[in-house]
Amino acid sequence: MRSERKKIKIRDRLVGEGYPTLVIAEIGNNHDGKVSQAKKLIKDAYEAGCDIVKFQTHIAYEEMIDDGATPPHFKEPRYKFTQRMQLSKKDHIILKKYAENLGLIFLSSPFSEKAVDLLEEIGVSAFKIASGELTNIPFLHYVAKKKKTIIMSTGMSSWEEIDRAVSAIRKYNNKLILMQCTSQYPCPYEKVGLGVIWALKKRYDCPVGISDHTPTNYTAFAAVTLGACIIEKHFTIDKSLYGPDHKASLVKEEMRSLIEGVRAIETALKPFDKNTLRSLGAVRDTFQKSLVAKRDIPAHTKITRTFICQKKPGTGISPVLIDTIVGKVSRVKIRKNTLLHINQFK
Hints:
CATH class of the largest domain: Alpha Beta
Number of strands: 12
Order of helices and strands: HEEEHEHHHEHEHEHEHEHEHHEEH
Radius of gyration: 30 Å
Number of domains: 2
Oligomer: single chain
CATH topology of the largest domain: TIM Barrel
């Protein structure tokens, strides 16, 4: 069972330690209800180098009551906004095909059981559970029974709530990836909680990523060094567009910079043997030092430290061998300020 938790796939991509970090462009509702804008976002994500594009699958009537609470960062009733953002099944099929033709993985977060069914019908390879659904245990059971990989954000939950949610999912499904996340948009650095990545990995023995809501790439880079297997960032074509997420999203050039940094960090984290530095031979010769005659040394002279100093280059006798030279006798006359050689001594 433990090995099953570590060998997790999203479509044809293995996720976890030892595999390349997957980068998700969280498009969410940044398409503003327009398929044409959604396609533009997908294309930009592809050109930036993303692995996955992720949307949100809303069916307003199934998801919320029409006079429910509206977050302070919304400028219109949540129900009305959600209705406008709804993508039809046909829209999903169009966007999934468009993304996959570009080589991207298409994912979406369902917010109702009917949304789960829609995504199942169009053949998504995994489900992304949003932070607000983590305490919805019947919903988690429903998703887990689909037997597909689940990526679950933990942005507004306590350890007790996460424990309960993980147990609910693992009752039916061990293919779970957890995301450290803080549900603030944008998220201040002091509330990112990078150290939670380690805690999640240790506590639940599964791959862990980060859904990063900060306005820069700094914490995403740090997350990779801490073992994050997925980086998710909100994505837009224009930060000034209307909607709750555009301002805290990356545009194409920022996303490209993120991905270039992630790949560079992955390369730098590869195993490295400090004993195999032959490629640095020329550098060592230039910058390291050798034993040098501090003054003229007559032939047949017993060598003391007063005859020796250390100077560049490093092509002679290494200073670590000074004690093998001290006490020997010079065979020949050695000129001041020249490299010492082992055959000059007996």
